[in-house]
Each structure stands twice: as structure tokens, then as C-alpha cells.
Amino acid sequence: MEENLLLKIGILPKYTEISLFLISATLILLFITNSLFREEFFSFFFSRDIGKGLIAFCGFFVGMIFSIYHTFSKRPLKESDKTFMLIFGIVANVIAGICGGFHALKSAKGIWMIFPIFNIGSSVLLVFLWRYKVIKEDAIEDIQAKKIDVVLGVIFVLLIFFISQYIFKNYWAITFSLCTFYSTNLLEASRKIIEKYI
Length: 198
Prior knowledge:
Structural class: mainly alpha
Strand order of the largest sheet: 1-2
Order of helices and strands: HEHHHHHEHH
Number of domains: 1
Helix content: over 70%
Distance between the termini: 41 Å
Number of helices: 8
Strand content: under 5%
Radius of gyration: 17 Å
Shape: globular
């Protein structure tokens, strides 16, 4: 009952193969094109304890590889695959939430400080819920990605990425959030609209 309530109000995440694939694609684009992202990404993992950071990075990287692999593979997800993919999805969102929150906090004043503080708090809550097994492997839905979703997703993510990074010149975490929001909330709707009118 409590888990259903948390899911309805958007606190518990739900990931699919295609959404994690598009998150992976966004991170790869950021890594290739954005030097500040590379700097803050490595700082997140290795600025304190290199040993623990290396373990966390390996888990994150393996999860990203599984997210890409399972988009094109028909093999059912194993529980271990889901574990690594869940680590990847959560850590990716936590990095963006914390970095984006602290970045916005530098320029926010008065009541507007609520929003970056909320971003940071949401990221901490996400880690807390995962750590205490409220968020579990069933957050990864074993739904085979459709080819049309892969094609549409890549096209729209590239479009959103280009507009955000090069026209509006947004901070990388904003670009990531926009691409992730499309991947997790709007992909299916955009496919249905295109299938209806084309």
C-alpha cells in the first residue's frame, strides 16, 4: 500500500529498457561534448575515497552496459542484470540532482532557493529509499524495447540535447533532466501521436 502511494506521487521511480537506454545515450553525449560534465562526473566518484569510488563507478558502468545491451537483446532480464541497471538509473539521477541543485543554489535567492534544495533533497531521499530496500529490482520493468521507440527516442533525445546545450546553453544537469523527462514520460505519447497521423 505504501509503495503504491509512493509510486503514484512519483517518489518511487520506474525504469524500462528503453528509458535506461536513452539515459545512457544522453550521458554518452554529455561525456563527449561537455568538459564540465566530465569534470563533475569523475569528481562525484573519485573526489573522496578512490577505492569506494572505483567500486561505485564499476557498478554504474556495468549497469549502463546492460541498459544498452538489453535494448537490442531479447534475452529476459536476470535479477543480477536488474540490480546493476537499477544502480545505474539511481546514480545517474542522483548525480544530476545533486550537481544541478548545488549549481542552481549558487544563483538562487529568497523563495527560489526552495527548488534547488528540493532537487538535492529528492536525490538524498532516492538513495535512502534504495539503501533501505524500498526501491528494489522490480523498479526495472522487463519490457522489450520496440524498434520504433528506439528510433524515435534517439531522434528526440538528440533534438532536445542540441537545443538545450547549443541554443539555450543550459547547464549539463538541466539538459540531462530534460532528456530523462522525455525518455521516462513522453516517449510513449510521442510514438502514439506519430502512429496516429503518419
